[in-house]
Specification:
The complex is a heterodimer.
Chain A (H helix, E strand, L loop, with lengths): L2 E13 L3 H12 L4 E4 L27 E4 L6 H4 L25 H5 L9 H15 L26 H12 L5 E2 L37 H7 L3 E3 L3 E7 L6 E7 L5 E11 L2 H11 L21 E11 L15 E3 L7 E2 L2 E2 L2 E5 L11 H4 L6 H13 E8 L8 E8 L5 E6 L4 H21 L5 E2 L3 E6 L25 E3 L14 H16 L9
Parallel strand pairs in A: 1-2, 1-8, 2-5, 3-16, 8-19
Antiparallel strand pairs in A: 4-10, 6-7, 7-8, 9-14, 9-17, 9-18, 10-13, 11-12, 13-14, 15-16
Helix pairs in contact in A: 1-6, 1-11, 4-11, 5-10
Chain B lengths: L15 E5 L2 E5 L1 H6 L9 H14 L3 H4 L1 H10 L19 H20 L8 H13 L10 H17 L2 H7 L14
Antiparallel strand pairs in B: 1-2
The chains are: A alpha/beta, B mainly alpha.
Chain lengths: 527, 185
């Protein structure tokens, strides 16, 4: 194997070009730092984002396989992205904030873990990201919303599907609000308005949806950051003391090994690969993996348990219209986490745009229908179907973890094995929510609503932040407890999952890390 | 809204590229099927079983080019493979074995129950076997679990029949492409 050592030295080296990595790269480059982003997947341009649920699969994980186990697998290949922009390239851009009660699970409820920060520490970063990127929504209508600046854009329109399902919520004494999305309802800072065509999963090529190609990665490149694609990091390097990361070793598309050095190294390769890289970079100073003295790297892996509710309505629903992430949102039952034997917050994402095929497409909602009956179902559903998604809170459990497999990838690096189980309190939460969802749909007029299987949505944990090395992998800024200049960015830091889509929080947390690295931390909760 | 910026596609100009005699051809899936373009992975017997099975599960799959679709994806490198199997926990290196095992087992089931290859079954006979294999794995089945294989093949067939611009039109759903796919797959 060809080995190329270079004298290249960067101020900030970012591994991964998704949501978290892009924010760090942009902020560092804007501050005049010499920034290199190493991206394992291929280069992506806006023009690659063709409208097809078949071609959309190229945007999903195609790197080293992840072995999965447990009663609720994390669904890595579906949730993780592949190529420039990472998972954020196919995100649905549903951007609610975590709630104030999501940050102290252990202290407040005796379960899971505490964050080392509170909502007020993150609030100014939510506000900054929201202003830079743009969010469409109606803050006042979200009666459950934690404090923060109102959204810079009016909400997206609600189409027939949303209006119909909303009647069910009203009948059940519940409340909906326009969904907060990082999708433009109007032209915003040079980016176009949404066309409401439901192709979010295939990637938005007009930049209406805030994917990294349209926002922070674009800004990073404009400010002088460099990105190298097909650059797979295989090892993190450190000095003789074991306290200072000196750079990384990566393999290019031809398999040649390169070494690059940097003053600050940021791992932003998503939850599973970050933990895998730390474990696979074991050395004499760190025999169990980097910063893994207390066997915490890889632990507290989480995914949101999710179920879809479906129904056919007599009225036309136009299910192809609107964003894939939904038109309306409900957090009525978010603030009360203790629900008898069930535990956790949850949200409903309501009236998601549908396509005929793919894992979440219309055809797969009824796998029991086939033959001639399938075409009849498809024709009916194409204009009369409604759906919504339950997103539940997962609990941080130490036994849910990422480990190294005995199998290796093409570069000789052990694969990741991800084990994830949910316990009864979470399963009961899901069951109760599904019953509620079916009742809402019946009230809305769906004759025979049905529920899809429980799946894992989003991936969090594995390199959790905390107060000290005895209970966490990093400090509140994502810096590893055992290395002074090695940072983690992304949802792997989350000590609790909450029950909201994580991408907004990923951005806010990464911005906070970037400020810390660059020495310009913001005060908490400014007036 | 700015729907006037959008083209609602009415044509069926879906193209499939294939190399025939060293020359790159761009043909529709329907034409590829009609022209009997050569296969890279699947055998004649596997193609016959696949077409019969897929057509019974999702009518229109044969004409839509299911066998060329599966064959092309199985011949692709992992990052270029579009099969939904990538979401379902099957390692890429096992894809060919997955389809081979399922098709072989389905054909064997047809021979055991009706003394016919799957491709020769009547519609009624095929439906009888689909009920059997979609519910449980038959005793004589040595491929991937039969209900899982059924689920995957049903999803693949749905991709071919409903996931293209033609397929949207078939069920009356506007396609509303930002960027039209140059090829169906």
């Amino acid at each position: 194997m060809q080995r190329i050592s270079t004298d290249e030295v960067f101020d900030v080296l970012v591994v991964g070009s998704g949501a978290a990595g892009s924010v760090i790269a942009a902020q560092a480059a804007r501050a005049g730092k010499r920034v290199l982003v190493l991206e394992s997947g291929p280069a992506r341009q806006m023009s690659d984002l063709v409208s097809s649920q078949l071609w959309a699969r190229r945007l999903k994980w195609s790197g080293a396989p992840v072995e999965e186990a447990g009663n609720l697998p994390i669904g890595h290949n579906f949730n993780a992205g592949w190529g420039t922009g990472g998972s954020a390239l196919h995100q649905f851009a549903v951007w609610p904030r975590l709630h104030e009660n999501d940050f102290k699970l252990k202290s407040d409820y005796g379960r899971g873990l505490d964050w080392p920060i509170e909502y007020d520490d993150l609030r100014p970063y939510y506000d900054r990201v929201q202003t830079e990127v743009g969010i469409s929504g109606d803050a006042r209508a979200e009666k459950w919303r934690p404090p923060g600046q109102k959204y810079p854009m009016a909400p997206l329109p609600v189409f027939a599907q949303g209006r119909l399902i909303d009647k069910g919520f009203v009948a059940q004494g519940m409340t909906t609000a326009p969904i907060p999305v990082a999708i433009n309802s109007e032209n915003y800072r040079g980016r176009k308005a949404c066309l409401y065509d439901g192709w979010c999963d295939a990637g938005c090529p007009i930049g209406a949806l805030a994917n990294p190609l349209a926002t922070y990665l674009a800004w990073a490149l404009e400010a002088g950051a460099e990105i190298r694609n097909r650059a797979t990091v295989v090892k993190i390097l450190h000095d003789i003391s074991g306290r200072i990361a000196t750079g990384v070793e990566y393999c290019d598309a031809d398999g040649a090994r390169h070494t690059v050095r940097a003053s600050t190294v940021v791992l932003a390769a998503f939850a599973v690969q970050n933990a895998r890289l730390l474990l696979a970079s074991a050395s004499e100073r760190h025999p169990h993996g980097l910063s893994n003295k207390n066997d915490l790297v890889g632990r507290y892996l989480m995914t949101h348990p999710a179920n879809s509710i479906y129904g056919l309505f007599s009225d036309e629903t136009q299910p192809h219209l609107g964003p894939t992430g939904g038109q309306l949102i409900n957090h009525d039952h978010y603030l009360q986490k203790e629900k008898g034997k069930a535990f956790g917050s949850y949200q409903w994402l309501i009236a998601n745009a549908l396509k005929p095929n793919d894992l979440l497409g219309i055809a797969n909602t009824r796998p029991d229908i086939y033959g001639a009956a399938l075409n009849d179902f498809m024709r009916k559903a194409a204009s009369h179907m409604g759906n919504m998604v339950f997103v539940g809170e997962d609990l941080a459990l130490a036994e849910n973890r990422i480990e190294l497999s005995e199998h290796k990838d093409d570069y000789g690096v052990p694969l990741a094995r991800a084990t994830h189980n949910i316990l009864d309190p979470t399963a009961l939460l899901c069951d109760a929510a599904v019953a509620q969802g079916l009742a809402v749909f019946k009230s809305a007029g769906a004759a025979q609503p049905w529920a899809g299987p429980r799946i894992g949505m989003h991936i969090m944990g594995g390199t959790v932040m905390g107060e000290n090395a005895a209970s966490s992998v990093t400090n509140q800024y994502g810096r590893l407890h055992e290395l002074d200049n090695l940072f983690i960015a992304g949802p792997g830091l989350f000590p609790s999952s909450g029950a909201v889509n994580p991408t907004f929080t990923i951005h806010a947390l990464a911005l906070r890390t970037a400020d810390h690295i660059l020495g310009s931390d913001m005060p908490s909760n400014p007036a | 809204m700015e729907h006037d910026r959008r083209r609602f596609l009415k044509s069926s100009g879906i193209a499939l590229s294939a190399i025939v005699g060293g020359e790159m051809l761009r043909v529709s899936p329907r034409s590829a099927q009609a022209a009997a373009l050569p296969y890279q992975i699947l055998t004649e017997e596997e193609v016959a079983t696949l077409q019969g099975l897929a057509e019974a599960i999702v009518p229109g799959a044969r004409e839509g080019g299911i066998s060329h679709y599966i064959d092309k994806q199985l011949a692709a490198a992992a990052p270029n493979c579009l099969l939904m199997l990538k979401y379902l926990g099957v390692p890429f290196e096992d894809y060919i074995g997955f389809y081979r095992g399922g098709l072989r087992s389905a054909d064997r089931l047809a021979r055991l129950r009706f003394s016919l290859s799957w491709s020769m079954l009547s519609a009624e006979q095929a439906q009888t076997l689909l009920v059997e294999m979609s519910g449980n794995t038959p005793l004589q089945w040595d491929g991937p679990p039969a209900p899982f294989f059924f689920f995957v093949l049903r999803a693949d067939s749905s991709d071919v029949v409903y996931g293209t611009e033609q397929g949207f039109e078939r069920i009356g759903m506007p396609y509303m492409a930002h960027i039209e796919p140059a090829q169906a797959w």
